[in-house]
Amino acid sequence: MSVWANKLLDNEEIKTKFISEAQIQSSIWKSKNDFYFWDAINNKKYLKFGSDIVNQILKWKINLSFRVYELLLNSKLSFFVFCFLLKSGAKKKFINIDFLLEHFSRTSLRVAIENLAKKELIFIDNFGNVKINKTFLNLKKERYLKLNHPFHWKKVFIFSLRSLENLLLIEWKSKSIKGKKFSISKNSTIVLQNNFFKRMSKTSIYKMLKQYAEFLDVDYKKLFNTKAKVKKLKDNKHIRKLTSKYFMKVRTLQVNIVASYIF
Asked: From what superkingdom does this record's organism come (predicted)?
């Protein structure tokens, strides 16, 4: 066998070894993530669904316009009811909503339907049947929130809707980080300062990211690196051009989340 062939064989063996190790790590992580998710689901006090329905929701593929997302941002109850209506034919015709009583109490359902009607997301006929307002469907030049993977829906259940958009954005940004699966990339990172996140206070951002690290079953410091940085500011208004300093913390994402955790 030629030297070139031996090198090729060695490379293939190394490649197979790395693929095998990555698959093992993926399997271990998935088991831990499933345990974390179902533990969180079972401990929920509100919006408790049966395991069959949860598994059904995890398979949903829904694209929500950001206009709809903004209207539902403060009510996860209304969000879920609207998604059930989307998946039940209410886009094309008026439907009876009694089937939703299998998943929501009568009081909760009434509150959600009234909220959706108030925001003009649905129409209600004289018989109490509902239909989704087509004005909010297939909007041109509109950004969409794509929920098309179990990993996305798990976050819908566990995190606030306000956090959801930010977490999906983090995952999308992480794609540009180069490196092996489940490893830190020191050469390629993404800066995530507090002004990167929308509609969240500094405390809420930190709590969200800490919980997100737990959700991924990864140490917070491995996922995010935070360093103090000194920045100089020159005062050009004065003749002496005094220079002042201030300290700031820079947070960077170090792991390609999509490559490592979304399968």
From this structure: Bacteria
